[in-house]
Please model this.
Amino acid sequence: DGMNVLFIVVDDLRPVLGCYGDKLVKSPNIDQLASQSMVFSNAYAQQAVCAPSRVSFLTGRRPDTTRLYDFYSYWRVHAGNYSTMPQYFKENGYMTLSVGKVFHPGVSSNYSDDYPYSWSIPPFHPSAEKYENDKTCRGKDGKLYANLVCPVNVTEMPGGTLPDIQSTAEAIRLLNIMKTNRQKFFLAVGYHKPHIPLRYPQEFLKLYPLENMTLAPDPWVPKKLPSVAYNPWTDIRQRDDVKALNVSFPYGPLPDDFQLQIRQSYYAAVSYLDVQIGLLLNALDNVGLSNNTIVVFTADHGWSLGEHGEWAKYSNFDVATRVPLMFYVPGMTTSPVSQGARVFPYLDPFSHVGGSAPQGQSKKVVELVSVFPTLAELAGLQVPPVCPETSFGVVLCTEGTSIVHYFNASEEEVEEGREGCGDTDRCFNEEPVAFSQYPRPADSPQWNSDKPKLKDIRIMGYSMRTIDYRYTLWVPFDPNNFTANFQDVHAGELYVMETDPNQDYNIYNNASHGWL
Model:
């Protein structure tokens, strides 16, 4: 009677994970999931900010179709009445459940996380979420601050807990109910960390002594970076500890020692997250559902940790757009799993040694907008049709494409001879491309460059990533009729991945444009 789905989405998590080759991080539980999963090492979000990215992958449509580039409109009203991935599962007989931050809360999901369209019961939000931005971080002087870097004693927190701890407990409670009711489910669990503030239980700092931390490999603003491409990390400047540093706007570098602390706390928050994932997956084992539940693990976008002299998301660089993406499909990414087998024993990051390699890994460039059709196919549902060129009036379609055909294709396999090209333009033998975009209010960094409201958008940076290149054009954009003018390029970026993996040397102006 079909597989269940556990869909885990993490806020602002770039792939600093053991299974993605990071040598410093302690992420044994996510790595263990990867060891039973198909892992995509080149997966990209369609816009590096929370609400637009989430609405995009939950509807399977790009930001130019959802018309959400900020936080302030609900797609069903402003763009089209598009079905969502959970809605599609709900209409196909699944109990759909939302825990934590899945949709971005607020007007962009109708102040209801798109309930009742997407979910069978009202979504759960952890009560401790409302304290996220309060002064809960103890400074050296013993006073409380609203800091960016915020290791805490959980027992001193309001309610004696943190949001992600509450979300894990609720998700486990729901798994137990689903087990008892024998109800086919789609359970989405959205974790808050490592989103700022970097507020996590202080013991996770022990995993990352400061002397082990390094700066970004390229902590300077690249000489040929167009000013329109730079994001001035306004959100972290508003935190008390960053404010006290009095860093000049927009480029002023943060002091090295503070950069190391941010990186240390980001890693610590990732290990705290890994523990939550470990407890959740262990609970899936405990209720005996690991043999018939698909697990998807991803993030809404990445987060810059000082690369290019930038912090936070809000850009088109890989550090902001690249995300972890993996699919555990029992019997497909693993040999058949017997009922009640232990697939996900909990691993303690403080004592666990040794990594585990991903079960399968694809370097194919893929997009989050493809998760909806992929998950539909894996669950045995009809794959939503590919959207026509203009799809504002089409309720169910996807601008992504199912990537299930990458699951068992070995990397060397020539993709040419594949069937199934008849009905879509995007034949499998074309080189895959990921598109991302980011809006700006002006050609140079200003106070609202990171998060311009729709009415203030003047320029859109359209970016494409292939296995070999990242190519970005910054062009005029009219927010009244949602049109971009590619005849008037304000700035361009071109990075060659083979020689410039960190995207520091923009060769757009010295490339001969004939071959682009």
